């Protein structure tokens, strides 16, 4: 199994967001009800992201054992494509259990790979009506899969970066800074909590200064995780002061009001934070 397929749905954030923006374009261009992406697992294909124009045919999270899927036929085909006007009449698909379950006819699917050529899953469209797909339609869907391959690369790179060491910098005895940069998803937030708690215990930290000035907030996941990290540190007797809060982060926090409930001090710079606890930076 290649590393890309090991990413969870939450870690494939960019792929899910961008695919949803493309799905309506694809459905309109090919005149179909449903467009979706599947991810290949150890023994099954799971729908990662889907769009149903009218009737819901394929929900997100829908999973089928690999051997009984249309995706297997797509991936096994040398042209990385499988299409049929009516799944109920096609010799390769009419006996599959999924065919009567879904109740669809027109189908077109292409293999979705990462930039290294590893199979991630498939990009497919389907409709309740019979559909004849042209070579132009196939080429169009392949081009959409190529675009999604680049987005997949972004998620893969972000996943690799999340394994970099958590940047904790000791300032003076009992005081350390934790600088957070870039995107922090759930898995990286859990790593940050683990590192911060163990570092704080092993180094007898009294104050942790969290610098968020380089943090990129894309959704509401990390503000919630930050709340958990702060709460855990305070249970250990470690005080947290937060600096460098961006306007975007402040807007999310104003809605949730979690840090305010904890009584965490927030200041605009590390210098002010040090002044607050009775220390100062002195230039030699």
From TrEMBL:
STAS domain: residues covered: 165-284
Gene3D superfamilies from the UniProt entry: 3.30.450.40, STAS domain (3.30.750.24)
SUPFAM superfamilies: GAF domain-like, SpoIIaa-like
InterPro entries in the cross-refs: Bact_StressResp_Reg, GAF, GAF-like_dom_sf, STAS_dom, STAS_dom_sf
Top-level taxon in the UniProt lineage: Bacteria
Signal sequence, renumbered to the chain: none
Protein name: RsbT co-antagonist protein RsbR
Native source organism of the sequence: Alkalicoccobacillus murimartini
């Amino acid at each position: 199994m290649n590393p890309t397929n090991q990413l969870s749905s939450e870690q494939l954030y960019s792929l899910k967001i961008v695919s949803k923006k493309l799905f309506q374009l694809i459905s309109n261009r090919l005149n179909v009800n449903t467009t979706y992406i599947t991810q290949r697992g150890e023994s099954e294909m799971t729908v990662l992201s889907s769009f149903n124009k009218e009737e819901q045919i394929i929900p997100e999270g829908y999973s089928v054992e690999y051997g009984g899927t249309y995706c297997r036929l797509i991936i096994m085909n040398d042209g990385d494509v499988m299409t049929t006007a009516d799944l109920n009449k096609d010799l390769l698909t009419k006996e599959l259990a999924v065919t009567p379950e879904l109740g669809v006819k027109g189908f077109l699917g292409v293999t979705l790979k990462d930039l290294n050529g590893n199979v991630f899953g498939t990009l497919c469209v389907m409709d309740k009506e019979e559909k004849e797909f042209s070579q132009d339609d196939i080429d169009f869907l392949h081009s959409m899969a190529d675009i999604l391959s680049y987005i997949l690369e972004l998620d893969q790179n972000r996943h690799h970066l999340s394994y970099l060491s958590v940047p904790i910098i000791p300032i003076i005895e009992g005081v350390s800074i934790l600088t957070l940069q870039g995107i922090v998803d759930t898995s990286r937030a859990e790593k940050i909590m683990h590192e911060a708690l163990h570092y704080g215990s092993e180094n007898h930290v009294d104050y942790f200064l969290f610098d968020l000035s380089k943090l990129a907030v894309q959704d509401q996941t990390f503000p919630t995780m930050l709340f958990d990290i702060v709460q855990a540190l305070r249970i250990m007797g470690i005080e947290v002061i937060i600096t460098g809060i961006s306007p975007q982060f402040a807007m999310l926090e104003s809605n949730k009001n979690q840090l305010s409930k904890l009584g965490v001090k927030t200041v605009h710079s590390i210098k002010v934070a040090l002044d607050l606890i009775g220390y100062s930076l002195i230039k030699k």
